[in-house]
Amino acid sequence: MTTRSSDGRARRTASYLVPVLGLCLLPLLMTGHSTAASTPGSTTQRAGVAGAGSSRADDRPNVVVIMADDMRTDELRFMPTTRRVLGRHGLRFENSFSTNPMCCPARASFLVGQHSHNHKVFSSLGRWGFKSFDDSYTIATALKGSGYRTALVGKYLNGYGHQHSRVTGGPSLRYVPAGYTDWYASVEPPLGSGLGGTYHYDHVTYNHNGSIDDSHDGEYSTVGISRISRRLVRKYAGPGRPFFLWASFVAPHEGLPSEAGDPHFPTPARPQWVRGRFNDVIARAPGVPRGGGRIEADMSDKPRFMRVLHEPSTRERRSMRDGARQRAESLYVLDREVGHIVRSLKRAGEWSNTVLMFTSDNGYFLGEHRKKSGKIMGYEPSIRVPFLVTGPGMRSGARRFDPITLIDATATILDLADATRRFEARRRLDGASRLPTMLQGDRGWSTPVITEGHMWSKVDREEAKRLGFKGVGRSYVGVRTARYSLIRTIRGTLELYDHADDANQMTSRHRDPDYRRTKRQLLAVWRAVMDCREDGCQAPLPGSLQATPEVARRLTLSFWRQVEKVHGY
Questions:
Q1: How far is the C-alpha of 141 from the C-alpha of 529, rounded, in Å?
Q2: Element housing 230 (H / E)
């Protein structure tokens, strides 16, 4: 297993003891990049992860990733099955982040374990979207090459279907990237095709292994993606090779069809049976303070592009509330389907040897900082995502306070599959495996979480160069530590927040003389990591910015208490 040492270099983790499905503790040697790692039936096993009683010659775990779209961390409250199966009988990471809080770049980052500034997908639109992504070698390619059966079901990258592929140079409607045993990707078809699309909840069209399948008109997409995923679980079950399944849902992203009573901004469509389920619970959007009142009375510490936002009117607050209700309803449908997928794994006899992860590509604003909706920006509601995991050796119901990002999830999956060496023969990872944290407990917050995003195309190139930005793909770069966050934009604006007493990021401390030393340290980190590659992205923070497991735990619990005090239901 590969982790990152304090000097940023990869190191091997020595043997340790872990519980496996209630069995007695077994002393098992865990190695990093075995020469047998990339061959089916390898004798190298993931200590604490291989399922008890597995009948496969290759007993590396199956990996199932369930990914929501635009889901906030606090919206887990509307998913009781997911909380029970993956939370109470798994692990919940309390500090989980999207490194680029927008659909397309976030998903590209997950596929290759790299930051946007390395894989060059910065946005969901135009030249920075799907057509800029080199998907000739991804996590799926490495896993399939190491003996896994691999599948994607559902959403791929924004623009897939109507934009050209960077790999082939041709249309992508029937394009299937390398590395997949089964490919059921929803498409965004060319205009005038008459086909359904990714964002039409009642009419999804799939590229099924290179053929267009438009037979799902009338099937709610969340149910359809789950049904196909469960069919693949049954197909892959039994003796043979392990499998990797990425079940990629659209909920709670906005989508068609429009419905009577929709608020005045786009929202997800929902089946009739779930409508109104949370009306008594959700009396306001989660970013609106308890008891009403102004969302953020003083925006003078924010950049100009934030200061121009006005306090939402009564009508806008009502729309935000209705939108929050619809999002919760769409997630409740997804929650039911999570339960169906888990039952399929159990009935197929694969549950004991499956690692199941649940997360989202990015978070979402629902009122915070006067943002009625949206994402992209480096504030907490946008960059935070849920992350729950369960599997052999991970059934304790514990909480983890170490940070984890989508690119760390990539490195963790490759570690679980003993396929890191194979992957890094073609691409180098920016993320680090969090398998030690999952199996052994928190290690502490010693490296920065790096976020970046694209908001503006028109910039002063000379000013951008002076600030250290290379090119114009990024509008900002942020650095998050256990206590602080620093956000700097390509237009020269700077914000610094101290989450110890300001989890809701109401007051930037970038001009506060008491934070002069902290700002200087954070800016040095920012400059060091803004263009990082590989192990450089895991360079240790200065000692004063690091946090031991206990300090990270205390800061995180304080963070969520502050959020709950202002915004909780």
A1: 28
A2: helix 221-236
For residue 143, CA distances in Å to 67, 139, 392 come to: 18, 6, 20
Q: Which two tokens stand for residue 494?
A: 């700077």
Query: Distance between CA 248 and CA 156 in Å, rounded?
Result: 7
Q: Which domain holds residue 508?
A: 449-567
Q: How far is CA 526 from CA 57, 449, 522, in A?
A: 47, 10, 6
Q: What is the Cα–Cα distance from 265 to 218, expressed in whole angstroms?
A: 24
Q: How many helices (H) and strands (E) does the chain have?
A: 14, 20
Of the candidates 391, 300, 313, which has an alpha carbon nearest to the alpha carbon of residue 90?
391
Tell me how many domains the chain contains.
Answer: 1
Instruction: Report yes or no on 56 lying in a domain.
Output: no
In angstroms, rounded to a whole number, what is the distance separating the alpha carbons of residues 311 and 297?
8
Residue 484 resides in a domain: yes
Q: How many CA atoms lie within 13 A of 435 on its CB side?
A: 30
Q: What is the pLDDT along the chain (569 residues), one digit of tens a residue?
A: 334 433 333 332 322 223 333 333 333 323 333 333 333 333 333 556 765 545 567 889 999 999 999 999 999 999 999 999 999 999 999 999 999 999 999 999 999 999 999 999 998 877 788 999 999 999 999 999 999 999 999 999 999 999 999 999 999 999 999 999 999 999 999 988 999 999 999 999 999 999 999 999 999 999 999 999 999 999 999 888 999 999 999 999 999 998 888 887 889 999 999 999 999 999 999 999 998 889 999 999 999 999 999 999 999 999 999 999 999 999 999 999 999 999 999 999 999 999 999 999 999 999 999 999 999 999 999 999 999 999 999 999 999 999 999 999 999 999 999 999 999 999 999 999 999 999 999 999 999 999 999 988 777 777 787 888 876 689 999 999 999 999 999 999 999 999 999 999 999 999 999 999 999 999 999 999 999 999 999 999 999 999 999 999 999 999 999 999 999 88
514 domain residue, yes or no: yes
* Domain assignment present for 386: no
Angle between helices 314-347 and 221-236 (to 10 degrees): 20
Between the CA of residue 338 and those of 86, 129, 206, 334, what are the distances in Å?
10, 29, 21, 6
* 3-state helix, strand and coil shares in percent for the chain, rounded to the nearest 5: 30, 15, 50
pTM metric for this prediction:
0.91
Q: Are 527 and 468 in contact (CB under 8 A)?
A: yes
**How do 206-208 and 182-186 pair as beta strands?**
antiparallel
Separation CA 381–CA 385 (nearest Å)? 8
